[in-house]
C-alpha cells in the first residue's frame, strides 16, 4: 500500500477522505473538459460532479486551470506507470537504452502513438493543448510541468547516444528531439494523416539519416 | 484593378457594395476571434462590428466557422501575395527552385518563421488552430483548404529534388515535409523555444542530413 502524505498532520481517516475527494475531483475535471471543452468547464461544475463543495476545490487549487493541470498530470503519471510495467524497473526513470538508438527511439515513439490514440488520453490532451495554444500562461505551465520533462528524457538519451558515437558531433540534442516529437505532434493535433507505428518507424529513420543521399558529404 | 466576380449578375455598384461588406465582415471576424477567442465569437457579434445585418452573413455563409475560415484564408492569401512581391513572378505558384534544395528550404522556412511571428497572423492562426484541435470537423476543413495545399508545395519541391538526386530514392516526400513543418509548428504552437531564422536553418540541416554520423551507412 502506498503511504499517505507523511507530512500531513491529519488522522488516517481524514487523509483517506482527502485522497478520495482528490481522486473524485480529478475524474470530474477530466470528464468535464472532455465533454464540454475547456471554456465551459467551471470549478462549480467540477465540484458538483465530484460531489464536493466548491470550497474544497479552492482550498487546494487557486483556479480551474490549476485543477485541470494537476488532473492531467495525474493521468499522464498513470500512463507512465502503466508503460513502465512492461519495462525493466531499472530503466523506469528514462528512455530505454539498449545501445541501439534507432530501436530505442522506435519503441518510445510507438508507445507515444499508442498513448495519443488512446481515447482516455486523447480528449483531455486535446482540450488542454488547445487552450494552451491560445492562453500563453496556461501553455507555459503545461510546457514547464509536462512537456519539457518529457523532452528532457529524449535529450538525455540523445546525449548518451552522441557520447557513444551514434549521434553526430555538433548536433544539439534539444533541437534533434523536435525532429521526432514535432512531426508526431503535428500529425496528431492537426489530424493530417493516421498516426501509426509505421509512421513512428519512418520518422526515426528519416531523423537519424536525413532525406538527402547519404553520400552527400563526399559531394559537398 | 482586380475585376470583381465576373459571373455575378449584379450591377457594378452592387458588386462594389458586396465587396465592401465582405471585407468588413472578414475584418470583424478576425478582430473578434483575436480579442475574445473562437468560442465567444458569434455571427451576431461579427455582423454588429462589421455594420451589416446578421442575414447578410447568413446569405453568404452557413455558420460562424465558415465565415472565420474564409476570413482566415483571405488573410493567408494576402500574406502569400506579399511574400510573392519579393520573388520572381514566374515562381509565384510554388516554392523557390534555384537548384539548391537546402538554400530554397531555408528561405521558405525563414519566411514561415516571419509570418508566424507577425502579430497580424499570430492571434487568428492560434485561435483557429486551437479550435481545430478540439473540433474535428473544423480542423478537417482547415487542413483540407489551407494546410494541405501548403504542404503540397513542399511535396512538389521535394519530388523535384528527388528527381534531381538531392533527395534519397525511397524517401516519401509527404513524410519528409513533416520533418520540416512539424517541428516549426510544434515550437510555435507550444511556445517551447523562440522561433528564429537560426532554428529554421538548423531544421533544414538536420532534416537533410539526419542526426546520425554521416558515415553510418558504411558501418550498418
TrEMBL record, chains A, B:
Region (Disordered): 1-20
PANTHER family: HTH-TYPE TRANSCRIPTIONAL REGULATOR RUTR (PTHR30055), TETR-FAMILY TRANSCRIPTIONAL REGULATOR (PTHR30055:SF148)
Protein name: TetR family transcriptional regulator
Highest taxon of source: Bacteria
Organism: Streptomyces thermolilacinus SPC6
Entry-linked PROSITE patterns: HTH_TETR_2 (PS50977)
Keyword Zinc-finger: no
Gene3D superfamilies assigned: Homeodomain-like (1.10.10.60), Tetracycline Repressor, domain 2 (1.10.357.10)
